[in-house]
Fold this protein.
Amino acid sequence: MTITPKIIGYVAGTLTTISFLPQAIMTLKTRDTESLSLGMYATFTIGVLLWLVYGIYLDDVAIIYANAITLILASSILCIKVYNTLMHKTGRVSSNEQ
Amino acid sequence: MTITPKIIGYVAGTLTTISFLPQAIMTLKTRDTESLSLGMYATFTIGVLLWLVYGIYLDDVAIIYANAITLILASSILCIKVYNTLMHKTGRVSSNEQ
């Protein structure tokens, strides 16, 4: 009996995606992005997008599925971060930041 | 002129690794792992290890190099987290935790 090596990719993608979920859910729920770095999050999101493109190029379902899910979560958080940053710059700061 | 698709993989790996670096450097310097979840970090580290194994299976240098670097960083942080957790359990807590 041989374990299909493809399964390793699916398990890898599932584990790294699961490990990202709690932070993603918390940020999407609370919309608190104070402790997140815009530059680092933008870098991460572009990186995940390129992994997705690379997965499509390789025609590798494990790479595609893992990075597609992470990209949806990461880009949602990035949008909230950009929105919060813009609101802060235009003076609409929250009570915590005053 | 065609851009070698392999380059996409290298850029993707570089970006996601770079985005992980600041947290890794901070944790390795301060050894403060209070805000990190042991379960989530263990899940992430095993996931990265499996991506590395999958990269070796695919013989894909971009996947191998990105996950090898991240694995070194993530497993170092995981070791510190496990050490801190064990120290806490055996009563050798820091002044902040008393």
Q: What stands out?
A: Helices of chain B lie at 5-30, 38-58, 61-89. Chain B touches chain A at residues 5, 8-9, 11-20, 22, 37, 40-41, 43-44, 46-51, 53-54, 57-58, 60, 62-63 (CB under 8 Å).
